Sequence to fold (190 residues):
Amino acid sequence: VTFWVSCRPYFYERLEDKTLLVFDECVEMKFWKPEDFDAFVEQSLREKDDCGVIKQRINKVRESMKSLINRPLFATIILFIAENNDIDVVQDEYELIELFLDEWMDRESKDKKIVFDRESSYEHMRKVALDMYLGKHPTFVKELQVFRDLLLMPRRNGSIQQFYHREFLVYFIVNAMIDAALNHPEKIAW
Fold:
């Protein structure tokens, strides 16, 4: 059985030696350098026919995404968007996640003939993110396949391996706050 455990460097530095002995191997993950991002793109596009077009899309907005390509999650998202559509200038990670979700829902709708109601999908994702941070057990709606794909690993031996990336959860919490402030002030708990 293999367990992957991650923690912030400052927390790791506070761990005692006897705690670290529990683990067979410790690997330090660092931000990517531009060369690492380039190598990732090359490796990912190696056998794609339209790799030149995808690289052009990425290079067109590379300067505006400089702070995002050094983070593997966002590098993966950028590549996904570039493979599926043109990319516009993106100011920050929230814009990038929103663009990614739009592209993802569009692709899932085309591939699986599922129609996503963006507002109800977002409402469900906001609820799960808030439930995660408030310590409640999240509930999943089977029809929202896009959300399950984003946050759940495939079933193995009948159990669901859940994966909640902090960046997505934070995005949906911020999204819930903005939505409440603009449209539903009664949802804001003072």
